[in-house]
Design a protein that fits this description.
globular, OB fold (Dihydrolipoamide Acetyltransferase, E2P), 3 domains, single chain, 414 residues
Length: 414
């Protein structure tokens, strides 16, 4: 008797998802808890595990379909219930010629690989055979880094000079490209991208958005990183980055200006006595914002370790729904992509977001009147003017600037 595979619980307030990809096909054998499909929710991709070990009989929904929690998407027969079809096909097939049998690899009957959505995309993008790549993940599974390393090695090998390289076989002529041809491609928006679009437009339609700017001299932060980076990494096993300083500076400012850490709920204002910082992280399907819980109580090392873990798992698509939920304030670092200045948009129901940008040498008039080249960064604080007055927004941003230009303030709580 076949067992139904149902859409698992997706988290609080999430009732449906989109089938992003089938990881197993009808007739494939599966182990208990082995992923058979990938679902796209409003925030993350979630793999659907098999409830039993057996053979996948049916796929009841198609890629791109919207399905609700609890819906049946497939059926699996326990044990070898559906295996006879494969066995009959194998018996009916004529035996291979001796030469072919001699050359066939001994493990040709190995089970097909199970790839996460991020890994599958990387494999297709680089045109690699996943069965020929050694996996470094759990139980030998491939990670995106494994695929990227294999692609880099293949590219290096292709460009390496070799006297023994055989002449390439003539390939079929490529399809002729008409000069001046204009082409279009339509790609279905992922559920994550649809949600991002909806939430950002909601923020524009609902909040009274305004942005205030300042610049910060990063000399002291850069000197501190240079002086302590080796000791910090040796003790904590993580590099001392810029984000630790900015998150700590934001927590200091939000304590002094609590409205920037608050939110509007109907006709009430909700103030938080804690700071949960959402950090914008780039993922294969778009930007995600996992949350550093109680960031105001964390050390530099704890913040840096948490952010590094978020970044790695965002690329692998393994962030959980709980890690994406909530947040009272957001920090977004567009500087890693080269941005000089921007007006970040708030992440509802939050009321403010800090935008970081690239550091560049600019001439600055010093207190003694001299002009010096200093490593400067523009900061942008976007906020909901319904809740936060201009004075409060500017005060919060100035507090962050002061803490970054004199990091001792972070240590003595000024």
């Amino acid at each position: 008797m076949a067992t139904d595979v149902q859409v698992p619980a997706l988290g609080e307030s999430i009732t449906e998802a989109t089938l992003g990809e089938w990881l197993k096909q009808p007739g494939d054998t599966v182990d208990r808890d082995e992923p058979i499909a990938s679902l796209e929710t409003d925030k993350v991709a979630i793999e659907v595990p098999s409830p039993i070990a057996g053979t996948l009989d049916e796929q009841l929904v198609a890629v791109g379909d919207t399905i609700e929690v609890g819906a049946v998407i497939a059926r699996i027969t326990a044990g070898a219930g559906a295996a006879p079809k494969k066995a009959e096909a194998k018996e009916a097939a004529p035996p291979p010629p001796p030469a072919a049998a001699k050359d066939a690899p001994a493990d040709s009957a190995a089970q097909p690989l199970t790839l996460s959505p991020a890994v599958r995309r990387a494999v297709l993008e680089h045109g690699l055979d996943p069965s020929k790549i050694a996996g470094s993940g759990k139980d030998g599974r491939l990670t995106k880094d494994d695929v990227l390393a294999a692609a880099k090695a293949q590219k290096a090998e292709a460009h390496a000079p070799s006297m023994e390289r055989a002449e390439p076989a003539p390939s079929a002529p490529a399809a002729a490209v008409v000069a001046g041809e204009r082409r279009e491609e339509r790609v279905r928006m992922t559920r994550l991208r649809q949600t991002i679009a909806s939430r950002l437009k909601e923020a524009q339609n609902t909040a009274a958005l305004l942005t205030t700017f300042n610049d910060v001299d990063m000399t002291e932060v850069m000197d501190a990183r240079k002086k302590y980076k080796d000791l910090f990494e040796k003790k904590h096993g993580i590099r001392l980055g810029f984000m630790g300083f900015f998150v700590k500076a934001a927590c200091l400012a939000l304590r002094d200006v609590p409205s920037v850490n608050a939110q509007i709920d109907g006709d009430e204002i909700v103030y938080h006595d804690y700071v949960d910082v959402s950090v914008a992280v780039s993922a294969p399907n778009g930007l995600v914002v996992p949350v550093i819980r109680n960031a105001d109580q964390m050390s530099f090392a704890e913040i840096e370790l948490t952010i590094a873990d978020f970044g790695k798992r965002a690329k692998d698509g393994s962030l959980s729904m709980d890690e994406m939920r909530g947040g009272t304030f957001t920090v977004s670092n567009g500087g890693v992509f080269g941005s000089l200045l921007s007006t970040p948009i708030i992440n509802p129901p939050q009321s403010a977001v800090l935008g970081m940008h690239r550091i560049e040498q600019r001439p600055v008039v010093m207190p003694d009147g001299s002009i010096a080249a200093r490593p400067m960064m523009y900061l942008a604080l976007s906020y909901d003017h319904r809740l936060i007055d201009g004075r409060e927004a500017v005060t919060a941003l100035v507090r962050m600037k002061e803490a970054l230009e004199d990091p001792m303030r972070l240590l003595i709580d000024l």
